[in-house]
Amino acid sequence: MTSKGNKLTADAIQSPEQTIAYLAQLSEIEYEQLREGEAKRLKFRVSVLDNLVADARAKNKSVMTSEQPYGVAVDGGPLLDEITEIINKHMILPKGALPAITLWVVLTYVFNAFKICPKLAIISPEKRCGKSTLLDLLGGLSHKSLLSSNITPSALFRAADLWQPTLLIDEADTFLAGRNDDLIGMINSGRTKRTAVVIRVAGDDLQPKQFSTWSPMAFASIKGLTSTVMDRSISIHLTRRKEHEAVQKTSLDFWDNCIPIRQKLTRWGREHFESLKSQVVEPPTIANDRAMDNWTPLFTIAGVVGGSWPEEVQSASRSAQARWRKCSVLLG
Hints:
- This protein has 14 helices and nine strands.
- With 332 residues, it is α/β, with parallel strands linked by helices.
- It is globular, with a radius of gyration of 22 Å.
């Protein structure tokens, strides 16, 4: 949707619903400049338009608000065990993948405590390996999840800048396999907090503006993504489950059922945020510096949680590096 000279172009917005959705995204100043003209065009009283836009803004905000923290203190170990049990109930995963996914879910609540936020790359060699199911699970468990089967460069940086959601992108192979350099560049930039910025011309005055790309992102793809995205990711390699391997399907109200877990994660994240910032745990020397940086947030979370989790994340990291070495040999 576009505007020209502070007037909405007729070919861009025509229906009342489209107009209200557009106006709800504007700043107070921009809306004030348009409200009377648009009310007249729609044959609404200005007060009616104000109320409709206010309702639309409330709905937009509610989609991406954090859960209220749980009412009492939360023990990280049992919470991570609970997440593991949920994922394990619905997925057949390769060795080491379950701890990595669980810790990445926690990372979506505390990623601002780190300078690096690795992507989660969910890869399979063929269809029907459970990629969409895993994204659905991540949607119910992660912080401010936003699920889509496609995304444009402008939508990505505006969503990340406005909401800092957990972006969950299905069928990424359909639009990241080719030369989509602009989108790939934005995705890559979002891994490191200091460089997670793009500059675009915005507003009626066409002034350059900074937009943040700092946000957790997970991508599901058949075969691999581009090498630069994979290099910035924790990779989960799925295979089609065998006939004797049974899993439960997620229910229609799965996301709602996960509200208590999201509240617990919110509480735990807030209470341990400073510890995560100050007690960084680096993984043992692995394939390369970037891989070590990718795993550092997961090792740190596991270290703060304690119990068996430091050993779990080490095992997961070793499994991931074994897969990386195998792929390197196959690729020559």
